[in-house]
Design a protein that fits this description.
The complex is a heterodimer. Chain A is α/β, with parallel strands linked by helices. Chain A has 16 helices and seven strands. Classes of the chains: A alpha/beta, B mainly alpha.
Chain lengths: ~400, ~180
């Protein structure tokens, strides 16, 4: 499934050549569209030429349609695609400042580059201005750091904002863009008394209709849900279950509980009754149905975070692991043998527990094999065994901390 | 006039838009992120700054993250993309014979004052792009295509800023 790990595939130099090629196509198209000429860009704001609007919105709706068709068909993993995180207020203020800069200077950073590349002196001055602007920003950002981080909403998308299916949002945006092309053309005609666009109307209508038709496919091909996503990703992640590298020994979890360097997140996916009987200190009860609500948090975990999924044995926790991998791919593991195994080691022979003997790991039926007389929750000693008194165990360490590949998009 | 011959050689904007959309899609499909330019310009600017005043670059957290110590701010994909944009723009200009030293300016202002306004606009653009964490390509185009809420808000803000001021600065671009 795309996107690809370019550096792994092509090496660092190879990946840079791909970016060079993409940049080349980008620059070539911008120049061919007339964006090396500030007058044609500025004309957008006087309705005399509408190239900016047309090129930009056509590109957005075409790319959007192709992206979400690919994700619907299981060719592209949307979770792996960089979506600019939302910082609402600095985004809006920055946008307003850029709009002002656009109408005064006549370019935006990308178009000024192609203008300069074709030896336009005004383009070169604009690029110099951008240099000065970014350096000035670096020098002044410390005075308003709080504002620069305000309105943070993380990875927040329009379907989430409106509570609509992705396909519906895409079709609505395509319709909006088509309406804007028509409306702006109308305004232009009102002001200047003649058609702004001389290309054949029939061809334009046909193209608009074709795009609308293709994007409408998204209404029928839905974006993959967690189950289907798991199927698509199974090749990559199922071996971890088969080779049991996703399962960690209770002693490794115990070790991590006492490791200050690790941000340990324990999700207990059992029902409320078992949870009330006994659960680990600092565990969070997250039933399977509520896992998807953790998506955002799971996607923005720090590098030292480790998620451990816990159920009575391994059945539910394994199901939860698959779901988590499908929605967010955090650095997650499953407690081997679950709570039953944990209590075998750290908990039995205590008068609060009806001792039914050691729970067998081979037979799993999802039940808590160590019934408690009282619902002790996390107050039982085994909820966080004493670092010095608990039995020591040999184990094979499975947990690997992530070293995040820096994957900032656009303009970082 | 030259303008009219240029005009006939420019692509139809819808055709350019479709092609740009395909490139943008391929960028996401292959590399996981969209197109960008201001970030590359930023890194080049910081690299130049690092040549002149390295101690200063290391002392400011924002620039130190890119160029602190022995970090090379040019060691980033977006710098290569910017190099590609320059080459692509140049190639397209060469093919259509548009590469020549000249200044584009409105009929009412001189080349010299146009340079000043271009610099001022660039300064605002550069500053705003950093504030908004992206420019027209990195935020509006790329973030817009993957449905980021912040990118759409940003996009409308850019148009609002441009349209809001356009009437007051019409002398820069329009005839009497």
């Amino acid at each position: 499934m795309a996107p690809f790990d370019l550096v792994a595939l092509l090496g660092v130099t190879g990946s840079y050549l791909v970016y060079l090629a993409i940049g080349f196509a980008f620059g070539f198209i911008l120049e061919s569209a007339g964006f090396g000429d500030a007058r044609r860009l500025a004309a957008q704001f006087y309705f005399s030429e509408l190239r900016v609007l047309k090129v930009m919105f056509t590109a957005i709706i075409v790319a959007m349609t192709l992206i979400f068709l690919s994700t619907a068909l299981g060719l592209l993993d949307y979770d792996e695609v960089w979506v600019n995180p939302t910082y609402l207020w600095p985004g809006i203020l920055g946008g307003l400042i850029m709009g002002v800069g656009f109408i005064i200077g006549g370019y935006c950073p990308g178009t000024s580059l192609v203008s300069m590349a074709t030896l336009k002196i005004d383009g070169a001055f604009f690029v110099l201005g951008v240099f000065a602007g970014v350096l000035l920003f670096g020098d002044t950002v410390e005075y308003f750091n709080d504002f620069w981080h305000s309105g943070f909403m993380g990875r927040f998308t329009l379907p989430e904002l409106f509570g609509l299916e992705t396909g519906v949002v895409v079709v609505l945006l395509v319709l909006m863009a088509l309406a804007m092309f028509w409306g702006f053309g109308l305004i232009s005609k009102l002001i200047y008394g003649k058609q702004e666009d001389h290309s054949p109307l029939g061809a334009r209508m046909a193209a608009a209709f074709a795009l609308l038709l293709v994007s409408s496919l998204l209404l029928f091909y839905e974006q993959p849900d967690a189950d289907r996503k798991w199927e698509l990703l199974a090749d990559k992640y199922a071996p971890r279950l088969q080779q049991r590298t996703a399962y960690i020994d209770p002693a490794e979890l115990f070790h991590m509980m006492n490791d200050e360097y690790i941000e340990l997140i324990i999700f207990d996916v059992r029902d409320e009754q078992d949870w009330n009987q006994f659960h680990l200190v600092d565990a969070e009860r997250v039933p399977l149905q509520q896992l998807t609500a953790q998506r955002k948090r799971m996607k923005s975990l720090p590098e030292n975070a480790v998620v451990v999924l816990v159920s009575n044995d391994e059945i539910l926790a394994t199901r939860a692991w698959k779901q988590l991998m499908a929605i967010a791919k955090p650095n997650a593991y499953i407690l081997e043998g679950g709570i039953n195994h944990w209590l075998n080691i750290y908990g039995v022979s205590d008068d609060e527990v009806d001792d039914h003997g050691t729970a067998s790991l081979a037979t799993q039926d999802g039940s808590l094999r160590h019934p408690f007389k009282l619902a002790l929750g996390a107050r039982h000693a085994a909820a966080r065994p004493d670092e010095h008194l608990a039995p020591q165990r040999e184990y094979t360490p499975r947990v690997k901390l992530l070293k995040k590949i820096s994957k900032a998009g656009g303009c970082d | 006039m030259k303008t009219t011959t240029d005009e006939t050689k420019y692509w139809n904007p819808y055709v350019a838009g479709v092609l740009l959309g395909v490139v943008l899609f391929l960028s996401f499909f292959i590399t996981s992120h969209g197109l960008g330019s201001s970030g590359g310009v930023n890194r080049i600017a910081v690299a130049l700054q690092d040549l002149v005043v390295p101690e200063y670059v290391d002392s400011v957290p924002y620039t130190a993250r890119m160029a602190g110590g022995d970090k090379n701010p040019l060691d980033s994909w977006i710098v290569w993309e910017v190099a590609g944009i320059l080459l692509g723009g140049f190639a397209s200009g060469m093919l259509r014979k548009r590469v020549r030293l000249q200044t584009y300016h409105g009929p009412q202002i001189s080349s010299r004052s146009r340079w000043g306004y271009a610099f001022l606009g660039g300064l605002l653009m550069g500053y705003g792009a950093r504030l908004a964490r992206g420019c027209t390509s990195g935020q509006a185009l790329s973030g817009g295509a993957v449905l980021s809420v912040g990118s759409w808000a940003f996009m409308f803000a850019v148009f609002a800023g441009g349209y809001g001021l356009a009437w007051f600065v019409r002398r820069l671009w329009q005839a009497e």
